[in-house]
Design brief:
This protein has 293 residues and is mainly α. It has 10 helices and no strands.
Length: 293
């Protein structure tokens, strides 16, 4: 279908899908008004995710879900802040930081989006490995698992929006969030510049990528640890909510990064040498101790 090959048409279709998903989420949120706020939010998040999943089946493209990662937190936390109507300086700063992270990440997705006939290579791999059960694999692994991880990472923000407050430790968390989102911005821009100017079969060894293989992932990890620190600054008794930021970190370290590295090792000549010269996440030189013996 020619419409699916158009980037503009694809973006419009995905926008419509996400609007419908938001409507479904708000409906479910209001339906369960008598239950705990966290449960209401999770049910709403799940309803929106299932709506996106249904359209991914219709369009035969699980990548319809991809921008959900950066759109859902912005929408959910903003609507919650409006509902709570607790607009102190801390609330405003948190919302601004989440917008900075979410809008930038979504803009990066829009820039790299081609059309609705193209699906993420990881999803193609899963479809090939599980042709009969792929809808179930897609629902659990591609849609619900990231939704759950991001939701867990958002819980500290939900509690902070209810509590409010601002102190020196809060600013540390805000700084970590801004640093993480900015690290993602810089590393993504450097990757886009590399792909425009050089042979994409080569390994990028410029900018932050000269020292680390996944600086963009480090930025994403820092973002949610920053949100946790913001919450911890006013609610230290909720220290156990670190589980969300930890789950997000483990998702990258144990799943996303190993999959990416395995693929690049097979597609990028010299990737093994590049791997030996660089760090996994931290973009600083890898110092070697000289052996004079």
């Amino acid at each position: 279908m020619q419409t699916l090959r158009s980037k503009t048409a694809g973006l419009i279709i995905i926008c419509i899908i996400f609007v419908l998903a938001a409507i479904a989420g708000v409906y479910v949120y209001n339906l369960f008004y008598a239950v705990h706020l966290i449960v209401r939010l999770f049910l709403a998040d799940t309803a929106a995710t299932v709506m996106v999943f249904v359209f991914s089946l219709i369009l035969r493209n699980a990548s319809v879900y991809d921008p959900y990662w950066s759109v859902a937190p912005v929408v959910m936390l903003t609507l919650l802040a409006l509902q709570l109507n607790h607009w102190d300086a801390g609330t405003l700063l948190l919302v601004v930081v989440v917008f900075y992270w979410g809008v930038r990440l979504t803009a990066n997705w829009i820039y790299t989006f081609r059309n609705l006939t193209v699906q993420d290579w990881r999803y193609d791999m899963l479809r090939k490995a599980n042709p009969k059960t792929f809808p179930l694999v897609s629902l659990i692994g591609i849609h619900m698992m990231p939704t759950i991880v991001v939701f867990l990472a958002m819980i500290p923000a939900v509690y902070y929006l209810q509590a409010g407050g601002l102190n020196a430790f809060t600013f540390v968390g805000i700084a970590v969030c801004i640093a993480g989102a900015t690290l993602e911005l810089i590393s993504d821009l450097q990757m886009h510049r590399f792909r425009r100017c050089l042979d994409c079969s080569r390994v990028i060894e410029t900018g932050l990528w000269k020292y680390a293989r996944h600086p963009n992932y480090l930025g994403e990890i820092c973002m949610w640890w920053g949100v946790y620190i913001i919450m911890l600054s006013v609610l230290p008794q909720r220290w156990y909510f670190f589980v969300g930021a930890l789950a997000n970190t483990l998702l990258f370290v144990l799943i996303s990064i190993p999959m990416a590295e395995k693929r690049m090792a097979g597609n990028k000549p010299g990737y093994g040498d590049y791997k030996n010269r660089t760090r996994l996440l931290l973009p600083i030189p890898r110092f070697k101790i000289k052996n004079d013996l």
